């Protein structure tokens, strides 16, 4: 496959907006699609301020945007390569699409069926899913050999890793095109078999879930759990703070996939995690999760997002 020129990103939440930003920084024309106009508005603001921070820290040059331009001009160029839309038909000419919508197999499958219908036959359909079977998403389309998992870490412009997941029918050509795109974004690649949670979340989410059980059963306060893991195991961020950053709804969805897919009770979501999500306390994105960010009790002084 020729190098991708046009990128479609579906879902403009924390992951989709970051992936769209990466694409624009690296010279791709990007359509960012969301069904929710408010989410698109938020994405536009957050991409613009994130790019400005890259400029003010002098880091935009590392992305090999045309070097004779000033950093500010490079930022303006990148912003000019981004289009925001709620109309899926605008993705028709995309060479490569990354889906980053809600972590639900049913909702993702419906989207893949639609994308399969409207995109050009050569387009690759990648999912940023944290845990869901790529093989099953691929089987909803007429092009399973062009469906792949491309799992960015949060926040995508900063985190160095992309986990690539091949479904049962993913072709070598699709794999190499996906790897080339991740490398164009200066990411390090790891490859996982198509098993629930892949590599990173298979290990990370049970730890976060266990941190919730530790809180739920009264072993310690949230602050001591996070401090224990930061200073005792050299993690840069505590597991409960990290859960708030990822989104408790996303963590719960991943635990459900691990529990159902691996069939072991050790993956059962902690009732406290379930209760927080039921109460709408889904983390930093809504202002309250394990911690309350609305009252200035924020444990993370600076946002990890640049
Ligand atoms: N949050 C993380 O740390 C993280 C990390 C890696 C991967 N992921 C994965 O990325 C995906 C997105 O996660 P997020 O944290 O960005 O979620 P989010 O809740 O911040 O954003 C999801 C966006 O998708 C939109 N959406 C939902 N259904 C849609 C549809 N049918 N068509 C178009 N837009 C739709 C929503 O309006 C919302 O703006 C999930 O699959 C998640 O598992 C998340």
Architecture (CATH level 2) name of the largest domain: 3-Layer(aba) Sandwich
Shape, per Cα inertia axes: globular
Bound small molecules, which ones?
Answer: nicotinamide-adenine-dinucleotide
CATH topology of the largest domain: Rossmann fold
Reported for the largest beta sheet, the result is: 8 strands, mixed
- Chain-averaged pLDDT: 93
* Regions with little confidence, pLDDT below 50 for 5+ residues: 299-306
Radius of gyration using CA atoms only: 19 Å
Please, could you describe this protein's structure?
This protein has helices at residues 14-25, 37-56, 71-80, 105-118, 134-139, 172-184, 200-216, 222-233, 239-246, 248-262, 271-278, and strands at residues 6-10, 29-33, 82-85, 96-99, 124-127, 147-152, 161-166, 188-192. With 306 residues, the protein is of the alpha/beta class. It folds into 2 domains: 6-193, Rossmann fold (3-Layer(aba) Sandwich), CATH 3.40.50.720; 203-286, N-(1-d-carboxylethyl)-l-norvaline Dehydrogenase, domain 2 (Orthogonal Bundle). Strands 3-2-1-4-5-6-7-8 form an 8-stranded mixed sheet, with helices on both faces. It is globular and about 55 Å long. The model is unreliable at 299-306 (pLDDT under 50). The structure holds nicotinamide-adenine-dinucleotide. This is 3-hydroxybutyryl-CoA dehydrogenase. The record marks 151 as: Important for catalytic activity. In the central section; belongs to the 3-hydroxyacyl-CoA dehydrogenase family. Belongs to the 3-hydroxyacyl-CoA dehydrogenase family. It comes from Gossypium harknessii.
